[in-house]
Amino acid sequence: MRVVIAEDSVLLREGLAGLLERFGHDVAAAVGDAPALVAAVAEQAPDIVIADVRMPPCFSDEGLRAVLELRAARPYLPVLVLSQYVEQTYAAELLDQAGAGGVGYLLKDRIGDVAQFAAAVTTVAGGGTVIDPEVVRQLLRGRGDPLARLTPREREVLSLVAEGRSNAAIARALFVSDAAVAKHIASILAKLDLPPDADDHRRVLAVLAYLRAAA
């Protein structure tokens, strides 16, 4: 597959390129800042983008914001974010797009196996989702263990949401009405302490809570 890498550290950038080439991938571009990333994707049309969160000039969240910009223009572009920390606001926004193509968020210091990293790249490029459990933990910090509040039917509905099914598809699978599914989901979101003002991200956070409990 064709890969574009965005990483400001020269050594890490070259190391990633060499690693991916060793696994048979074509590194179409390896750049060191966010504007160069956007330009490289437009020119190379890669199968996946691998980007650091912190990049020049401010070394804050330029890389992650560039990834979100790219996803806005190309909703199905697979992206794998590498970081030393969790940028909660933009991480939630990125993961909220997981249903529209491959998304990954891995913490650099917790990647301990080259083969597993290569497998994560393949998974994301294929449309899957790879999320470091620590990212899930931080996004859900302070929420306790709310899944214990769900009824068996609500857990069943949430498991189908986690599979990426729409409300209509869930209704068909459970032989209930769309209105019943909507009512269950509203109850799930309320029990998970995901209020309406968090509407942009609360469905994905509900899924992350489910995945964490199932791990």
Please tag this protein with its features:
single chain; 215 residues; alpha/beta; Rossmann fold; Arc Repressor Mutant, subunit A; six-stranded parallel sheet; 51% helix
List the helices and strands and how they pair.
Blueprint: E1 2-6, H1 10-22, E2 26-31, H2 34-44, E3 48-52, H3 62-73, E4 79-83, H4 88-95, E5 103-107, H5 114-125, E6 129-131, H6 133-139, H7 152-162, H8 167-174, H9 178-191, H10 202-214
Parallel strand pairs: 1-2, 1-3, 3-4, 4-5, 5-6
Describe the protein's architecture and organization:
The chain has 215 residues and is of the alpha/beta class. The protein has 2 domains: 2-133, Response regulator (Rossmann fold); 146-214, Winged helix-like DNA-binding domain superfamily/Winged helix DNA-binding domain (Arc Repressor Mutant, subunit A), CATH 1.10.10.10. It is 51% helix and 13% strand. It contains 10 helices and 6 strands. It has helices at residues 10-22, 34-44, 62-73, 88-95, 114-125, 133-139, 152-162, 167-174, 178-191, 202-214, and strands spanning 2-6, 26-31, 48-52, 79-83, 103-107, 129-131. The chain has a 6-stranded parallel beta sheet, sandwiched between helices. Helix 8 crosses helix 9 (178-191). The longest helix is centred in the C-terminal third of the chain and has 14 residues, at 178-191.
